[in-house]
């Protein structure tokens, strides 16, 4: 097993088999709710992806138990890809990346 220093850690772990089963049955409305909560946690100032994800997971009243933080981070990366968020750093490692609302995006 490869060891990583505190300066560089492995990418975030992908969901395990049980989590993948839970993710597969998420309804579109549930995914939209996650996306909305993630966008609401963002600002026009840079915020760590880990902070955004943790805030949403801690405060989402209808959160589905067992959905891992890596799924939320993947949703953040997808919003970066579609231009709703801007990013800096390594999105495969949520502690080493930051996001903010893209110019013109209103929550």
Task: Explain what the structure shows.
The protein has 107 residues and is of the alpha+beta class. The chain has a single domain (26-101), classed as Orthogonal Bundle (Arc Repressor Mutant, subunit A), CATH 1.10.10. It is 43% helix and 11% strand. The chain contains four helices and three strands. A three-stranded antiparallel beta sheet has the order 1-3-2. Strand 2 (85-89) and strand 3 (97-101) form a beta hairpin. Helix 2 packs across helix 3, helix 2 (28-41) crosses helix 4 (69-81) and helix 3 (49-59) packs across helix 4 (69-81). The mean pLDDT is 91.
Task: State the gist of this model.
With 107 residues, this protein is α+β, with helices and mostly antiparallel strands. It has helices at 17-24, 28-41, 49-59, 69-81, and strands spanning 47-48, 85-89, 97-101.
Reconstruct the topology from this structure:
Blueprint: H1 17-24, H2 28-41, E1 47-48, H3 49-59, H4 69-81, E2 85-89, E3 97-101
Antiparallel strand pairs: 1-3, 2-3
Helix pairs in contact: 2-3, 2-4, 3-4
What keyword list fits this structure?
107 residues; alpha+beta; Arc Repressor Mutant, subunit A; three-stranded antiparallel beta sheet; 4 helices; 43% helix
């Amino acid at each position: 097993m490869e060891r990583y220093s505190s300066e560089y850690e492995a990418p975030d772990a992908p969901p395990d088999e049980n989590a993948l089963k839970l993710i597969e049955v998420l309804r579109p409305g549930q995914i939209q709710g996650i996306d909305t909560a993630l966008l609401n946690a963002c600002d026009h100032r840079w915020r760590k992806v880990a902070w955004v994800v943790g805030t949403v997971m801690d405060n989402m009243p209808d959160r589905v138990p067992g959905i891992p933080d890596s799924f939320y981070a993947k949703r953040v990366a997808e919003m970066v890809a579609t231009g709703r968020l801007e990013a800096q750093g390594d999105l495969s490692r949520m502690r080493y990346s930051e996001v903010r609302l893209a110019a013109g995006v209103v929550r």
